[in-house]
Amino acid sequence: MEQIGESNTQKAIADIRSSVMHHAEKLFQRKYRKPILYAVLLAMFNQLSGINAIFYYAPRIFEMAGFDKNDSFLRPVYIGAANLFFTLLAMTMIDKFGRKTLLLIGSVGMILFLALTGSSLSNEGAGNGNLVFYLIGFIAFFAFSQGAVVWVFISEIFPNSVRSQGGSLGSFTHWIMAAMISWIFPTVAKITVNNVHTGVVDAFYFFSVMMFIHMIFVWKVMPETKGRSLETIQKELGIE
Predict the structure, then answer these.
(1) Which terminal CB of the chain, N or C, has fewer other CB atoms within 10 Å?
(2) Is residue 55 situated within a structural domain?
(3) Structure pTM?
(4) Is 10 helix (H, G, I), strand (E, B) or coil?
């Protein structure tokens, strides 16, 4: 405890012991309403960004923009590379700048690049070259924020007595939303008006609006957990 910078080691150890006294508690209790709300909403917003719609259907999106089949399958490689790089970058920044800061920065970037992607897809013409830059921009901001923060935050806000259940709830919400988005997106993307893929355009505008709501949620509601012990976070959330 001293090596990690804890000034009052005896109190810290006592707090940890106290927090693990009861491990048979049920998650769905009134006192856990805040961490449940935060975990579920953050996991939902993670998928309402459209991240898995892009990952799963990137080649089809590029085809809709007018790229030929070979380019449509090559361009997603750049998206994957951007995801890897900016996830690694976020790992070095998350404890320096905090969870909320990364999420707010990411929200602004995602709102912008999702809207630009929708605008790009609404323009007719073969091989809209800007589309790949817009999608890479979105992936960069997503990986730097939501992609890195969601699992860290969910693991921090639940007390030890229900942490495994809380983490499972967050993961369940995340993947249920991923299934819904990946199931609905292809159907919506088929909608065309006057040879313009209005369905996929509207989908990206929808994702952009969701990220605006996500930004408000992070700014006004979500607590910061950077630099706080798990026991301190528990007390700040009113969980005794």
Answers:
(1) C
(2) yes
(3) 0.84
(4) helix
**DSSP-derived secondary structure for 108-146:** HHHHHHHHHHHHHHHS-SS--THHHHHHHHHHHHHHHTH
- Per-residue confidence in pLDDT tens, the chain, 240 aa: 888 777 888 888 887 777 666 666 788 888 888 999 999 999 999 999 999 999 999 888 888 877 777 878 888 888 999 999 999 998 888 888 889 999 999 999 999 999 999 988 887 554 467 888 999 999 999 999 998 899 999 988 888 778 889 999 999 999 999 999 999 999 988 877 666 678 888 999 999 999 999 999 999 998 888 877 777 787 787 776
228: DSSP letter: -
The amino acid at 90: A
Report yes or no: 147 and 87 within 8 Å, Cβ to Cβ.
Answer: yes
Residue 223 per-residue DSSP state = P
